[in-house]
Design brief:
The protein is an alpha/beta fold. It has helices spanning 14-26, 42-54, 82-91, 102-105, 131-146, 158-170, 200-205, 208-221, 227-241, and strands spanning 3-5, 8-11, 31-36, 57-62, 96-98, 150-154, 176-180, 245-253, 267-275, 278-286. It has two domains: 3-180, Rossmann fold (3-Layer(aba) Sandwich), CATH 3.40.50; 193-286, 2-Layer Sandwich (Pantoate--beta-alanine Ligase, Chain: A,domain 2), CATH 3.30.1300. It has a seven-stranded mixed β-sheet, sandwiched between helices. The protein has a three-stranded antiparallel β-sheet with strand order 8-9-10, with helices on one face.
């Protein structure tokens, strides 16, 4: 049975979600699913807008997934505001909110995990052991629970997007995965729920990540520097800008995320860097001759 939150219909059981989606599809309507962990901002609402543009109905899931957080990560303090999120979704024209409990998503005896394979081994993989297994497992569950025609994910989490595309292809899940361009604030900082952790001083430094990625992508696209030299310079620039640690700065194949030592195919420049206790990630497309 549906309840209401913030002016939007809410279901919390997979059977009810599946029944509603199937009812819409029997009526000839296409359904888009937008999986989120809540703490919604304009980036999430852009996913809703894309889903509504591509389908008749938009369903948003909110589930802070414990299996994608490491033991020393921020699961307990991750921002949660279902009522506020529901109000935003209602204003954005969302048709249904799916908000399952942890015990419903992972009932007693649950033991299945999806290992995405090598695509998850680089970039964030070594720094967040088990993270992409948790992402792959919960996203596969959400896609199968909903049975939606389309699912929208942001390019800000580019490795996550490619992991999801990979498992959907490998497992023959019949949902189209739609990537949506990163939404940024006026400074260029990619919108993220974790930006709320930044202090005022850190917020002044944070836009340097995108600025340096853009400059590095331009150097690579123009052929001014080889990838190794360009990345070495960019890492030094991030350090000078005030980032306290750099987990990685990586030029990778845009599809497989395999490392590239020359720019001979569509690529992605991906980075993760720390400001104090906050880890920021960002990425930018790189193609020889196409200057960002």
């Amino acid at each position: 049975m549906k309840d209401q939150s913030g002016g939007i219909a809410v279901v919390r059981q997979a059977a009810l979600l599946r029944a509603q989606v199937a009812s819409w599809q029997r009526a000839g309507e296409r359904v888009a699913l937008i999986p989120t962990m809540g703490a919604l901002h304009e980036g999430h609402l852009a996913l809703v807008a894309r889903g509504r543009a591509m389908a008749t109905r938009a369903v948003v899931s909110i589930f802070v997934n414990p299996t994608q957080f490491g033991p020393n990560e921020d699961f307990a303090r991750y921002p949660r505001d279902e009522a506020g999120d529901a109000a935003k979704l209602a204003a954005a024209g969302t048709d249904l909110l799916y908000a399952p409990a942890v015990e419903d998503m992972y009932p007693p005896g649950f033991s299945t995990k999806i290992d995405p394979g090598p695509i998850a081994d680089r970039q964030c993989g070594p720094f967040r052991p088990g993270h992409f297994t948790g992402v792959a497992t919960v996203v596969a569950k959400l896609l199968l629970q909903a049975g939606a025609d389309i699912a929208c994910f942001g390019e800000k989490d580019y490795q996550q997007l490619q992991v999801i595309r990979h498992i959907v292809s490998n497992l023959d899940i019949p949902t189209r995965i739609e990537g949506v361009a990163t939404i940024r604030d006026a400074s260029g900082l990619a919108l993220s729920s974790r930006n709320a952790y930044l202090t005022a001083a850190e917020k002044a430094v944070a836009p340097s990540l995108y600025r340096i990625l853009t400059l590095t992508a331009r150097r690579l696209a123009q052929g001014d520097l080889d990838p190794a030299s360009a990345i070495e310079i960019a890492e030094a620039e991030l350090t000078r800008a005030g980032f306290t640690r750099i987990d990685y700065l990586d030029l990778a194949d845009a599809v497989t995320l395999a490392p590239l030592d020359r720019l001979d195919r569509p690529a992605r420049l991906l980075a993760a860097a720390w400001l104090g206790r906050t880890r920021l990630i960002d990425n930018i497309a790189v193609t020889r001759g196409a200057v960002p």
